[in-house]
Write a structure and sequence with these properties.
Shape: elongated
Largest sheet: 6 strands, parallel
Strand order of the largest sheet: 3-2-4-5-7-6
Number of helices: 15
Radius of gyration: 21 Å
Strand content: 15-25%
Length: 376
């Protein structure tokens, strides 16, 4: 195990002083160390998505001639494909980037189902992208680390990119950073209120992370089954598109999308598509805690955004913002009566109960039950 402070020291010795990316729980020691040194701002940009981060690092290199560092979970490799192959590659502009990649779903390590396949292909994906991968594990020696960073330095001279692939437990968390917001409404209470207020026959598609876990648990607590809920355990940012596909195909069914602020920001173009097609049977609810909570609570930029105005601008017929249960109940009860595309932003606090569980069914079992119920 290597201290995150020493790890960042070595990165800085490469001449890197610009960091950007999307946080990952496996990289929490690293991102905490970065935030303790640089904060969140000009030298450390929390990007909308991983491809966005590659663009930011490229712009920084063009302006300063210094490589940037992009941090991401391996699930984000899909988002970097286009800028890596058509922008940074040596056969295009030759912009060197250092990637710090959290290796979820690594072989022989138990992980959540959405990480298993991407874990298997992580090293192959990096090789395909001509990004040399260096395996950082908990037993790595100082001497080996020194060799790795020397090779990365040489690759930079050749304008080639490299990736430090971080296995579970490889980095030691010496710096702790606490995050909070000023909201008081508990997210799980908001989810309970949504279940209570929407029509019983409504179908819910929920975003990845704790929102889906809390939805699942509250169905259990209510003694309900789960065939009305599609739990989007992976593909962050795409729950609203999944809900749109459902709403367009079955106009007689009420579709409710329970989204998160980080997910919405990651692929905001989805809101424009939803607004353009204007499904009157879709209710889009965003539970906004201004954080990537599932991976450590690192802030998003949602506190600087006016989601309500954005929703109206792209075609949602009505849009609301609430920060308490009474207002949420009132808006929900009125919204479900209307044949209109409606957006609701719910401001919630950070945190969840310590005993929050995970869905017991496999994703494919959840899908089959949901499909069967959807057709009926």
């Amino acid at each position: 195990m290597i201290g995150a402070d020493l790890f960042v020291d070595e990165i800085e010795k490469l001449g890197i002083d610009f960091f950007t990316g999307v946080p990952d729980s496996q990289l929490k020691p690293f991102t905490n160390e970065i935030i303790s040194r640089y904060g969140v701002g000009r030298k450390n940009v929390i990007a909308a998505n991983e491809g966005n981060a590659v663009g930011l690092a490229s712009g920084y290199y063009i302006a300063t001639d210094k490589p940037g560092c992009v941090y991401l979970q391996n699930s984000g490799l899909g988002n970097i494909f286009n800028p890596v192959t058509s922008l940074t590659n040596e056969e295009v502009y030759g912009i060197p980037v250092l990637y710090v990649v959290g290796w979820r779903g690594e072989p022989d390590v138990h992980d959540e189902p959405q990480h298993v396949f991407q874990g298997k292909i992580t090293l192959q994906t990096l090789k395909l992208l001509n990004i040399k991968a260096f395996d950082i594990h908990k037993d790595i020696t100082v001497e080996k680390m020194s060799e790795i960073f020397n090779e990365i330095s040489q690759r930079f001279l050749n304008r080639e990119s490299s990736a430090l692939v971080i296995r579970k437990g490889a980095l030691e968390n010496k710096t702790k950073v606490q995050f909070s917001n000023h909201n008081t409404l508990v997210r799980e209470s908001a989810i309970k209120k949504i279940i209570e207020c929407i029509p019983k026959e409504s179908l819910i598609t929920s975003t990845t992370g704790k929102i889906s876990r809390e939805l699942y648990e509250n169905r259990e607590l209510n003694g309900e089954r789960h065939e009305k809920d599609f739990l989007t355990v992976g593909s962050m940012g795409h729950a609203s598109s999944i809900a749109l596909g459902q709403a367009l195909s079955q106009k007689n069914k009420k579709i409710v999308c329970i989204d998160g602020d980080g997910a919405v920001i990651m692929h905001m173009g989805a809101m424009a598509t939803i607004g353009a097609y204007e499904p009157v049977n879709l209710l889009h609810i965003v539970l906004d805690n201004s954080a990537h909570e599932t991976v450590g609570g690192i802030p998003t930029i949602s506190n600087k955004m006016d989601f309500v105005s954005i929703a109206k601008a792209v075609g949602y017929k009505e849009a609301y913002e609430v920060d308490n249960l009474n207002d949420l109940e009132s808006v929900l009860k009125e919204s479900v009566k209307k044949e209109k595309l409606i957006f609701i932003r719910v401001l919630v606090t950070l945190g969840s109960r310590e005993n929050l569980g995970r869905p017991k069914e496999k994703p494919i079992d959840n899908l089959e039950k949901f499909k069967k119920n959807f057709k009926n």
